Amino acid sequence: MGLIVQKFGGTSVGSPEKIMNAANRAAEESQKGNSVVVVVSAMGKTTDHLVSLAAEITQKPSKREMDMLLSTGEQVTISLLTMALQAKGYDAVSYTGWQAGISTEHVHGNARISGIDTEKIEKRLSEGKIVVVAGFQGFADGSEITTLGRGGSDTTAVALAAALKADKCDIYTDVTGVYTTDPRFVKGARKLEGISYDEMLELANLGAGVLHPRAVEFAKNYGVPLEVRSSTEAERGTLIEEETDMEQNLIVRGIAFEDQVSKVTVCGLQNGLMALSTIFKTLASHGINVDIIIQSTADAQIASLSFSVKTGEVEETVHVLETYKVELGFERIEFENGLAKVSIVGSGMVSNPGVAAEMFHVLAKEQIEVKMVSTSEIKVSTVVGHADMVKAVEALHDAFELSEQPAGVLGAN
Amino acid sequence: MGLIVQKFGGTSVGSPEKIMNAANRAAEESQKGNSVVVVVSAMGKTTDHLVSLAAEITQKPSKREMDMLLSTGEQVTISLLTMALQAKGYDAVSYTGWQAGISTEHVHGNARISGIDTEKIEKRLSEGKIVVVAGFQGFADGSEITTLGRGGSDTTAVALAAALKADKCDIYTDVTGVYTTDPRFVKGARKLEGISYDEMLELANLGAGVLHPRAVEFAKNYGVPLEVRSSTEAERGTLIEEETDMEQNLIVRGIAFEDQVSKVTVCGLQNGLMALSTIFKTLASHGINVDIIIQSTADAQIASLSFSVKTGEVEETVHVLETYKVELGFERIEFENGLAKVSIVGSGMVSNPGVAAEMFHVLAKEQIEVKMVSTSEIKVSTVVGHADMVKAVEALHDAFELSEQPAGVLGAN
């Protein structure tokens, strides 16, 4: 007996049939005697449809009106899911973000949750109701509808779990858990039983795509145990919680990768150290996200600077930099498309300094050229040619023995 | 300079292009120096789509969740219309029913407005903003979303106009005004310049379909001048207000008609007067709407009773009555499909007792059999064969000289 928060993403509620399926999941937990709060996203392609409607009206919709528009998506899902639960004989009630008491800062399009008044939800739970809450949305200043931006429904679920002191937050999705790497590309990819918040954070940030980094960070800060699991398969998923002994013997926990990466090099920088901050401030003010940054100094005055961006943003990056060429003070810009980023992640790295070296060794053996490198305490990222991406992931997956079930937890399922 | 409330129905905001057009209408009034509040319905087929989604989940959705679902429809429209106004350079803001302060009784699916807190809207108007409000919806008990049922957006517009003491409420629709009869059927149908609330009420109730009776009643009670006009044509529409001299010389103002009418006769009633109330209570409790009722008494004990219903409800009517045959005490039921109702409306009838007789004379001359008759102070309704419907309307339209411009207001435009 406990309190469970369940979250179903867009693909898990993409049709009336899938909504019925999500209702079954909630009903199962209720049957076990648990109190259940369900958080849902908009149905499948709904958000895309609404965005394209707005695009037919104007290319620059105001963020407030976009929030007004997009927040209807989850409202449709909560009502349908609640109807499904009621049709199955369960007492259930739906709440939008504002009805559920989810306050946010007064920012449109990307608001952060500032507090949750849980009184109403707790009252409904104590009456034995399943409470269905719209993810992704909240309210500010008493009555303004706001949205939380990308990964917003994950964040709603975790924040509600934290505020309600839930025993667990289950993230239902279209995969069965968090894998050592993407199983669509690497045959030996294995589902992890457990992973720490920090590792999940690196994997989430690195494009594993199962769970939004904001939600993981929130869960870490409030100690909410998460489980990523399939909305259609019955099997256990992957538990995300504070560092445990589970699979501790694994130095590398997973391998993330993404393509559509480009490398931009600014050559002949004249302003030395100042250039660094000026260039990235300029790019940031134009909304361009820079990932890996490498500075190589030829002599004290003339240096060059490389960084990676998404390939889709190369053109604007070059345009912005050329516009400010005089102020920034450089000779020329070079760029290389068709690259990919491959990263190994694992909290065991902190105490194993040889991991990066082992990674480079594996890549060298496969004759894969490493074009950029970036490291943190629990990850090493490399930029390689797109053609080498899957080969690199497979070789690393083998070398770090990720396909094998760790001895310590064999049979734990 | 004044305050105008504009209302755009589903077909007038059925596409992004039509929403842009509605924005132009609001902008025009704003340009003239008027304060403008715009009330909108859900886009075209949106409500149907939402209803069919719910039907895929359950055949008996709860009314609360249907309100939650359907109220998203207008929310989409208010955001898109506001974006359109902003794109044209106008300062505008959208409000859902609850944000606009529209309180209703706590009934789902068919709530009545209990009050409007206009403070927020008035503040926005004083800041020079065009305020765009979701029709059809309100809130009860502080945070429960309710809807107003059929014709709800018309009612929202009129109620807002009353609460804001607006100078006028313009109902934009896909016709250019209120006609003497349906111009799709009768060539000589003429647009009326003015009509009284009561006359409009009878026409609205009789299926003219331009404006919901509830809204007309509300407008009458609060003295809100209404104009029904085209959302695409620039011409003046039809003004609806308290009895004026305008066109007063016309005894009959318009002719309404509808088909799909059936006549049901309950023969051999044994319980005399009691049967009347028992039968109609029974039918009402099964949601069957009875229109014209005629009782003919053969002797004090054995009577027969006829009434008209929509043809689509005949089957259930007969089924319900047969189920309670013993309690109701009758011999047999007869019914006749393929009928139509034709009504003449005009407040001048009150002081012209010969109008009904003139109507029967016209129909008799055309050899049209009148199967049922019902009268009120300002209308006479007849039930005729469907094949005679248009012929009856044309003959009456001619006989009461509705095609001709009344002398008193010629050139008033």
UniProtKB/TrEMBL annotation, chains A, B:
Domain ACT: 264-347
GO CC field: cytosol
Class of enzymatic activity (EC top level): transferase
Family: Belongs to the aspartokinase family.
Name assigned to this protein: Aspartokinase
Biological process terms in GO annotation: diaminopimelate biosynthetic process; homoserine biosynthetic process; lysine biosynthetic process via diaminopimelate; threonine biosynthetic process
Subunit structure: Tetramer consisting of 2 isoforms Alpha (catalytic and regulation) and of a homodimer of 2 isoforms Beta (regulation).
Pathway linked to the protein: Amino-acid biosynthesis; L-methionine biosynthesis via de novo pathway; L-homoserine from L-aspartate: step 1/3; Amino-acid biosynthesis; L-lysine biosynthesis via DAP pathway; (S)-tetrahydrodipicolinate from L-aspartate: step 1/4; Amino-acid biosynthesis; L-threonine biosynthesis; L-threonine from L-aspartate: step 1/5
EC number(s) from the headed UniProt entry: 2.7.2.4
InterPro entries: AceGlu_kinase-like_sf, ACT-like_dom_sf, ACT_Aspartokinase, ACT_dom, AKii-LysC-BS, Asp/Glu/Uridylate_kinase, Asp_kin_monofn, Asp_kinase
Keyword annotations of the record: Amino-acid biosynthesis, ATP-binding, Diaminopimelate biosynthesis, Kinase, Lysine biosynthesis, Nucleotide-binding, Repeat, Transferase
Family matches, as PANTHER family: ASPARTATE KINASE, ASPARTOKINASE 2
Binding site for ATP: 7-10, 173-174, 179, 184
Keyword rRNA-binding: no
GO molecular function: aspartate kinase activity; ATP binding
Domain of life where this protein originates: Bacteria
Binding site for substrate: 47, 74
Catalytic activity annotation: L-aspartate + ATP = 4-phospho-L-aspartate + ADP
Protein's job: Catalyzes the phosphorylation of the beta-carboxyl group of aspartic acid with ATP to yield 4-phospho-L-aspartate, which is involved in the branched biosynthetic pathway leading to the biosynthesis of amino acids threonine, isoleucine and methionine.
Lineage of source species: Bacteria, Bacillati, Bacillota, Bacilli, Bacillales
